[in-house]
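--- STAGE predict ---
source: upstream dedup step, 1 unique chain passed
mode: sequence only
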Amino acid sequence: MKKEKSCGAVVYRETGEQIEILLIRHKNGGHWAFPKGHVEKKETEEDTALREIREETGLEVLLDTGFRRAVTYSPKPNVKKDVVYFAARFQSGSPEAQPEEVMDIVWASPDKALQLVTYQNDVETLEAFLDYEKN
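--- STAGE serialize ---
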């Protein structure tokens, strides 16, 4: 079995009393999810998450490793993929979709984001982040 590892983050920004969640629509499959990508060579999980967010969205964020959620699934036969998500607070930049990988980028309320994300493991990751963010 082939093993793959990706890292990313639930990116959020504060808008007054509320928060908004950044979601991207991936070209590969058209699903809504969080920015993430494969770990390269000697990168740490944190380095990968920051690089992928920058590449896919053009945004600078502050990573919060106090939130760390790992998800494992099989994207195709004989492949096991681990994805590690952190929380990431928006710092600067304006969302710009990486044309090779991203079709669209939106900021959404937590309720809207829960409706938009395509896969159940992303719903569960977002719910875990929202619980973490409340506390």
